[in-house]
Design brief:
Layout: E1 10-15, H1 20-35, E2 43-49, H2 55-65, H3 72-78, E3 82-86, H4 95-109, E4 115-119, H5 126-135, E5 155-159, H6 167-178, E6 186-188, H7 196-206, E7 220-228, H8 237-240, H9 247-264, H10 273-286, H11 295-298, E8 299-302, E9 304-305, E10 307-309, E11 312-314, E12 332-338, E13 348-354, E14 361-368, E15 387-393, E16 397-405, E17 413-421, H12 422-426, H13 433-443, H14 452-471, E18 480-481, H15 488-495
Parallel strand pairs: 1-2, 1-4, 2-3, 4-5, 5-6, 7-13, 9-18
Antiparallel strand pairs: 7-14, 8-12, 10-11, 12-13, 14-15, 15-16, 16-17
This protein binds NADP nicotinamide-adenine-dinucleotide phosphate.
Length: about 500
């Protein structure tokens, strides 16, 4: 049900309305927000893409895609807010119709000229659409774009990933955006930041007294961030096997470095978006940019060959339709990052991500240093390092792993676990990241969105690795079987330092 107290409604204009993301994530997230009273009462959605739908066709298409997501009565009410404009927004001459429709819907739903644009199209269409938004003069902060009546209005834009494919293309996209929108109207989305357990990191660290004193190079040995998928590239071979594809670009440079920034940031002076972003930007600026001759020691690329995931056979990456049989694309990437600050000097951050791996999980593991003196050296085995494991998904929760005494006579040790299980604690599943982020964008809260400086620094930190890989083809690919934990070289990278990935 809409919340009448929050009267800053808007028109959500989704470019790429006929696409997968819109049907699977964006509209269900907006419905969920509306159903939970988290949207203003005056809200409307206008989908834009080339496919020839009427309003009713698109409503049916959305509902038919995941009927289980929608309650029949509530959907009947909600769908009245959903509209569709069949236009190619990349073409300037389509914008007369698009603008007319926006103005008509603004009037029909009394939206006060507020617009949230959402770019849910392939990245090559981002810039043409942004430029057309500029030329159509629908971004007129402070007055209405369709009739100048003195009403205060806002226009914002959400930009999907990938944000560039290297530092140059990211900078160009940022310049194009800046030509039309102010920075405080640009919402570069990273759905990992919408995940509940990533946000919980701020609470864990800054609302508790017991963790923060340990959260530094004095006590932390290293940090691992893993995002492993069991799915292979499936039908998206030609998309993935492009010069801008691969695990390093798709996952490590974007999502995993964002997670790292939340783990590593200093306490902000307040929880305001600007203050949190200031601290995150500092982390990105402190990321060490590797030299070409260091790359083979700190980064590993992998590609899956044939194998089985959960007992189901998986064809090798190079045998997938749309993939070059000699492809060098990384379906697995691991990299050691250094955050050159007083807090983190000497503490490696190991990030890895891969497709067709042994299990699906996203987790952050903080490994602590051993005690200064080992009193229990002779008691069967040495103590294992203490760990704080943040399970981002699945099994959302936080687990502390430490040594305990085995019951009975004698002093035997065993690793034990203190467990905060999200679902057990709160008796509910964590909300979908897209709902959280769309809610924030409509409210005008940029905390969980990426600043342009974060994106540039993230690209700068991985580009030397990508350049080295492009210039040095690897002749042992594929180098891991589908259903395993990646190439042996990734294990060796850790073992050289006396460390091990947490698998399983
Ligand atoms: N799907 C996901 O799970 C997911 C997750 C994270 C991020 N993303 C990002 O979200 C964006 C959309 O992804 P998607 O999976 O929804 O893509 P998609 O299913 O391929 O949809 C792309 C949309 O773009 C439109 N389009 C295609 N060619 C066009 C052209 N020449 N001119 C104008 N519009 C065109 C299509 O509509 P018409 O053909 O009707 O015009 C369609 O609505 C991408 O940037 C992707 O990286 C997707």
């Amino acid at each position: 049900m809409p919340d009448d107290n929050n009267n800053t409604g808007c028109l959500v204009v989704i470019f790429g309305a006929s696409g997968d993301l819109t049907k699977r994530k964006l509209v269900p997230a907006l419905y969920h927000l509306w159903d939970n009273g988290m949207l203003p009462s005056n809200i409307a959605i206008m989908g834009v893409s080339r496919t020839k739908y009427s309003d009713d066709d698109w409503r049916e298409e959305l509902h038919g895609f995941s009927p289980g997501s929608y309650d029949a009565d509530k959907w009947a009410d909600f769908k009245e807010r959903i509209h569709y404009q069949a236009s190619d927004a990349t073409k300037a001459d389509a914008w007369g119709d698009i603008k007319d429709r926006m103005c008509a819907l603004d009037k029909q739903h009394a939206l006060g000229g507020n617009v949230l644009f959402y770019l849910s199209v392939s990245p090559q269409f981002f810039e043409p659409i942004i430029n057309n938004i500029g030329t159509a003069e629908v971004v007129v902060e402070g007055r209405k774009y369709c009739s100048i009546d003195g009403t205060k209005s806002w226009q914002r834009i959400v930009v999907e990933k990938p944000f560039g494919s290297d530092p140059g293309s990211a900078a160009k996209l940022n310049r194009t955006l800046a030509g039309v929108f102010d920075e405080d109207a640009i919402y570069r989305i990273d759905h990992y930041l919408g995940k509940e357990l990533v946000q919980n990191m701020l609470v864990l660290r800054f609302a508790n007294a017991i963790f923060e004193p340990l959260w530094n190079q004095r006590y932390v040995d290293h940090i691992q961030i893993t995002a492993s998928e069991t799915v292979d590239v499936g039908t998206r071979g030609s998309y993935y096997d492009s010069p801008s594809g691969g695990a390093m670009r798709d996952m490590v440079q974007s999502h995993l470095l964002q997670v790292l920034s939340v783990v590593a940031m200093e306490p902000p002076v307040s929880m305001d978006a600007a203050d949190i972003r200031t601290e995150k930007i500092k982390v990105f600026k402190a990321l060490r940019v590797p030299k070409a001759d260091e790359v083979s020691k700190i980064a590993v690329r992998g590609q899956y060959g044939p194998g089985a995931v959960n007992g189901d056979p998986v064809v090798g990456y190079r045998d997938t339709e749309g993939v070059d049989p000699h492809s060098q694309t990384d379906t697995f990437a691991a990299m050691q990052f250094s955050v050159d600050t007083w807090r983190w000097g000497g503490v490696p951050f190991y990030l890895r991500s891969g497709k067709a791996m042994g299990a699906k999980k996203t987790e952050i593991v903080v490994y602590f240093k051993p005690t200064p003196h080992c009193l229990f050296r002779d008691k069967a085995r040495n103590a294992k390092p203490n760990q704080i494991v943040i399970n981002v998904q699945p099994d959302e929760g936080i687990r502390m792993r430490f040594e305990g005494k085995v019951p009975g006579s004698g002093l035997k040790m065993k690793e034990v676990v203190m467990d905060f299980d999200y679902v057990e604690q709160w008796q509910t599943e964590p909300p979908d990241g897209y709902a959280t982020l769309l809610h924030d964008a409509i409210k005008g809260d940029q905390t969980l969105f990426k600043h342009r400086d974060e994106i540039q620094s993230a690209w700068d930190a991985v580009q030397p690795v990508l350049d080295y890989w492009a210039g040095n083809p690897q002749d042992d690919l594929p180098n891991y079987s589908a259903g395993t934990w990646g190439p042996p070289a990734a294990d060796l990278m850790m073992q050289r330092e006396g460390r091990y990935w947490r698998n399983g």
